[in-house]
Design goal:
Number of domains: 2
CATH superfamily of the largest domain: Aldehyde Dehydrogenase, Chain A, domain 1
Bound molecules: adenosine-5'-diphosphate
CATH class of the largest domain: Alpha Beta
Helix content: 25-40%
Number of helices: 15
Number of strands: 18
Largest sheet: 7 strands, mixed
CATH architecture of the largest domain: 3-Layer(aba) Sandwich
Length: about 475
């Protein structure tokens, strides 16, 4: 295995290069989920380091927010270019700490960088308003100002893109940030921060808190009066907790939480397109994405044909280490993740589900799970309700359109939904009926920097990306300028 040069740069910048002891500061190991190998150590920060990071973001706020939008845009643009110039290095690092196949990791780096490019452009278009006046002696205006210091807490499934998706709009708007990446994958965050510094971001504008003490660091980030906004991506359980914690200081929150995406195949669908879409949507990142198809509702008349087409494609999947060239499905993130997926599949099979393909841990051992197709499911099974977060397809037949819609919406979640049909009237009926923030129609890869990403119901609040994304990081201020005479 080649060691990405950025790994050593990152460990050095974190004060944890090699195996030398950085003193008595606590630190924790980052491991490769495919092999269990240690990649290095990073500082395990606690309460006092978070306070320090918030102070430094607060000091940097006037410096950064008073730069012109064009100056901020130029720095973001340089950051974007530096990421592009190191894309392979960054992708290798991402694969090593997260496990996903190298090509997916590369795609994630470029996808994440696209938000930085986009918001570098949007920085220059944060426009206020001049309102029609209610009297000749006054003028009425709306100003847009950066909200202040932002806290961001991010998950391990996209260790780079979930971070750039938050940092880019926050920094573009003029906010400064304290980010706490997931404990499984802190290295990609440190690498991004290092390139941001090289791009000219002033000291203190971006502060990375690496820690295994999620509750302790989260408690400070959600209660600190100098933090005005929390942007969180992760589980619904933790999102609710953080939202409660933010209530005390009435912080603005953006939450991108769990999904339970339905994937509906109608009888008039192009089944080849549906099977190809299902593959992308289900097996990317070994099924560990919040927009992964989680429940496949297939019209009974085409269920077998669809399942055969899917199974045929699935036999071409290659489970392995992400840096092996032919790998298409990597390991799950850690032993707890594989225990959870195994538990869901075992529970379903014990209650009568049938595995059409796969059904258990992969012969490679470790954190690898077999690509699996389950059928004959019912509501008593835990898998019928849970967000699987693994390479498991659950096939559920339906007869009527209304039943498919009802089952699709029968969940507290509302992030992404997909459906395949060629019927024009049905397209609008189903699109309008689905209670989801994002809908893929004859399409299963729908995220992009120019589109609003986010969910309804318990899947979250707010949108990331697009022209709407910047609004999460600005305050609106109404100015009434009076005394101007008649
Ligand atoms: P996942 O299931 O994707 O691991 P989590 O919600 O557990 O989702 O984790 C997402 C992020 O939230 C990670 O950075 C994790 O460290 C952090 N986190 C987990 N528990 C807490 C908590 N109690 N307070 C603050 N942050 C937390």
């Amino acid at each position: 295995m080649t060691r990405p040069s950025i790994l050593d740069e990152v460990l050095t910048s974190a004060g944890c290069s090699g195996e030398t002891d950085p003193g008595d500061r606590p630190r924790f190991a980052v491991t490769n989920p495919a092999t269990g190998d240690r990649l290095g150590h990073v500082p395990d920060m606690g309460r006092s380091e978070v306070h320090k990071a918030v102070r430094s973001a607060k000091v940097a706020f006037p410096v950064w927010s008073r730069k012109t939008a064009k100056e901020r845009a130029a720095i973001l643009r340089r950051w974007y270019e530096l990421i592009h110039s190191r894309v392979d290095d960054l992708a290798q690092l991402l694969t090593l700490e997260q496990g996903k196949p190298f090509n997916e990791a590369r795609g994630e780096i470029l996808y994440g960088a696209s938000y930085i490019e986009w918001f570098a452009e949007e920085a220059k278009r944060i426009e206020g308003d001049i309102l029609p006046t209610t009297g000749p002696d006054r003028r009425m205006l709306v100003l847009k100002q950066p909200i202040g210091v932002v806290a961001a807490i991010t998950p391990w499934n996209f260790p780079s893109a979930m971070i750039s998706r938050k940092l880019a709009p926050a920094l573009a708007a003029g906010c400064t940030v304290v980010i706490k990446p997931a404990e499984d994958t802190p290295l990609s965050a440190l690498a991004l921060a290092q390139l941001a510094k090289r791009a000219g971001l002033p000291d203190g504008a971006l502060n990375v808190v690496t820690s295994v003490r999620a509750a302790e660091t989260g408690e400070v980030l959600t209660s600190h009066p100098d933090i005005r906004k929390l942007s969180f991506t992760g589980s619904t359980r933790v999102g609710k907790l953080l939202m409660r914690q933010c209530a005390e200081t009435v912080k603005k929150v953006s939450l991108e939480l769990g999904g339970n995406a339905p994937f509906i195949v109608f009888e008039d669908a192009d089944l080849d397109a549906a099977a190809a879409g299902a593959m992308l949507c289900k097996f990317r990142n070994a099924g560990q994405t919040c927009v992964s198809a989680n429940r496949f509702y297939v019209h009974a008349s085409v269920l077998d044909a669809f399942a055969d087409k899917l199974a045929e494609r699935m036999t071409a999947l290659k489970v392995g280490q992400g840096l092996d060239e032919d790998t298409t499905v990597g390991p799950l993130i850690n032993p707890a993740a594989i225990d959870k997926v195994e538990g869901l599949v075992d529970d379903a099979v014990a209650k009568g589900a049938r595995a059409r393909l796969g059904g258990g841990r992969h012969a490679r051992g470790g954190n690898f799970f077999e690509p699996t197709v389950l059928e004959n499911l019912d509501d008593t099974m835990e898998i019928a309700r849970a967000e699987i977060f693994g390479p498991v397809v659950t096939l559920i037949p339906f007869e009527e359109e209304a039943d498919a819609i009802q089952m699709a919406n029968d969940t507290p979640y509302g992030l992404a939904a997909y459906f395949y049909t060629q019927n024009m009237a049905r397209i609008w009926r189903v699109t309008e009926a689905l209670e989801y923030g994002m809908v893929g129609l004859n399409e299963s890869v729908l995220s992009g920097e120019n589109a609003p990403f986010g969910g309804m119901k318990e899947s979250g609040i707010g949108r990331e990306g697009s022209k709407y994304g910047i609004e999460e990081y600005v305050e609106m201020k109404y100015l009434c300028h009076g005394g101007l005479g008649a």
